[in-house]
Amino acid sequence: MPRLPPPEPRHALPRPRLALALQGGGAHGAFTWGVLDRLLEEDVELAGVSGASAGAMNAAMLVQGWARGGRDGARAELAGFWKRVSDAGRLGPIQPGLSGRLFGRWNVDHAPGTHLMEWTRRWITPYQTQPADFHPLRGLLTEMVEPELIRRAGLRLFVSASNVRTGALRLFDEGEVGVDHLLASACLPHLFRAVRIDGQDYWDGGYLANPPLSPLADSCPDADLLVVAINPLTCATTPEDPAGIAARLNQITFNATLLQELHSLAGRADGPRLHLITADEHLQDLGVYSKLMTDWGFLSWLFDAGREAAGRWVDGGLPAVGVESTARSPAFA
């Protein structure tokens, strides 16, 4: 009987390769934590991460955890960070009411602490009340951030900050990111003194790159770019009350650079394949001040919402990685 030739070897499909761009938005960054937690359950290969403000902190924790223990290490690092953020803010002025805790009504624009902060913001600056190096997360980050781990993770990292005096964007990469760079990226000027680095003062990176896209795409040319946008890109109706108007203006302001960069990259012949996970469905009804609320119930709700959104993208978008763009949004049309 003639011997049959051996069967052809089956070649495994290449793992999806992604670069992640993580938008900032204060406590709403716990939504991104949920997105990342779900994505890291998949057998994906990461090339790099960028972020602004809370997105920068998520990015740094992901990279550091990746160096410590791959996908599982990154998930553990992110979970530990957000639990400590909640613990550090348990006595903060912005707290949910009983109905918020019981029924998931997390908009705190009319809470007593919110009115106090609004009055303070109008009449008092951080330079009148804070020591030069104050930031509520400084101690936490000093204990958690390990720059050496970030440097040796093998992932590109870009963190944005806004130079106060020149108005120019400043990007810090994995070779230099430390505590001050993360605080600079998250420095809202009406809440905190500018963060000084090498003689220059910096404010929140979200004003100029929220998050940085082009540097990440250029440094990871073989990866698809997945953007996690936590400031709602669209709204169902035009707001008419002061709190609603302020919230929508905040969303438009912090989305402006993102939309500009998305349009620019989509128009480039050599641009990356683009993918988008948004929080529009879950966060549209939340006001500005919920970004300052670190109640564990609220952060857990955001985490679950992020996992849900990421799960939908995994089902519909992950198979397209390496094949075609899936970024879809009325704001991106």
TrEMBL record:
Do you know which InterPro entries this protein is assigned to? Answer: Acyl_Trfase/lysoPLipase, NTE, PNPLA_dom
| Keyword Manganese assigned | no
Tell me where the sequence motif GXSXG sits in this chain.
51-55
Lineage top rank: taxon: Bacteria
Alphabetical UniProt keywords: Hydrolase, Lipid degradation, Lipid metabolism
Instruction: Please report a single Pfam family linked to this protein.
Output: Patatin
Residues of the active site: S53 (nucleophile), D204 (proton acceptor)
PNPLA domain ranges (all copies): 20-217
The secretion signal range is none
Motif span (GXGXXG)? 24-29
Q: Where is this motif: DGA/G?
A: 204-206
Question: What name has this protein been given in UniProt?
Answer: NTE family protein
